[in-house]
Input
Amino acid sequence: MPIWFTIDLDVEFDNERFGKPYGSKNPGIEKGIPLFLSLFKRFQIPATFHIQEQSDIHDSISATYSHIVEAIQKDGHEIGLHTHFQKGYDPESREREITSGIRRLEEKYGKIVSFRAGKYFTSEATIKILEKYGIKYDVSPYKNTSIGNMRWYDIADSPYHPSYKDITRIDNASILMIPITNKRLGIILDSSISLELMKKGTNILISESKKIKQPIIIFLSTHSWKCIDPVTNSFRKDIIQRLKEYFAFLQQFNNIEFMNIRTLGERWEQGEFTPYFLNTPDLFGQNFSLFSPRRYFWLSKYFLFWRKYFKYILFKKID
Ligand SMILES: [Zn+2]
Output
């Protein structure tokens, strides 16, 4: 079957990179977005830009940088919603953040169907809110990572409808979860992974595509500030070069189709495909030396499991 390639950017204030209070300077947006737009134009890649919106108008990208969001839409890219939730946000606060963002974006840019939670931290309560307001695709799952209480380990490699009780499981919720490509395949834009490893991971997916009936999805995710050096505020030439070479590499395959999230979601639903699980090697872990703890990063899954178990023994409760 063919391969569907999709890429999205979280367009957010640069402070999100460091977890600091909002600053007035955002080279990631002012310089980073025009750069990504020119790259996508050059390689004819339709992308999805998830725009950060919070209920506080000072934390709204569309209010602060309307000319940039307009430029994104003018180039034909999809506009989605990106919202960060503070730790311990109850469903009411989540709903307030999500609805204010949807309202602001839809007033200017039309119907929004795609959503990314800050730090991939969506939840069962969140998908119910998203469905209520017409969001069709939650692209927060990131296979083989864990963030906060969220464990994205054993999820499908493909889009799937989740359970309202556990969004990592397949069931019959109406929202479609679209996971970022398995971290262990090493096709990662937000790290210093080598181009060679990215090509290797991609080649594995290309050979997997010959074995299954569903389209294989390569879904990469990055951030507006990624191509900017945080100290000098100048462009990170190495990152930009790696991106260009990776896009050029993808374009030599005639069975790879480039599309944004909305198109991918619609085509997946129309095709009535069933979710798939792949059995692929841990290239990301193998990339580190035998003595590097990052090589054994998959162990954290078991560590987190046992921590919960011990808590139960000690305090007779599970949080
Ligand atoms: Zn973010």
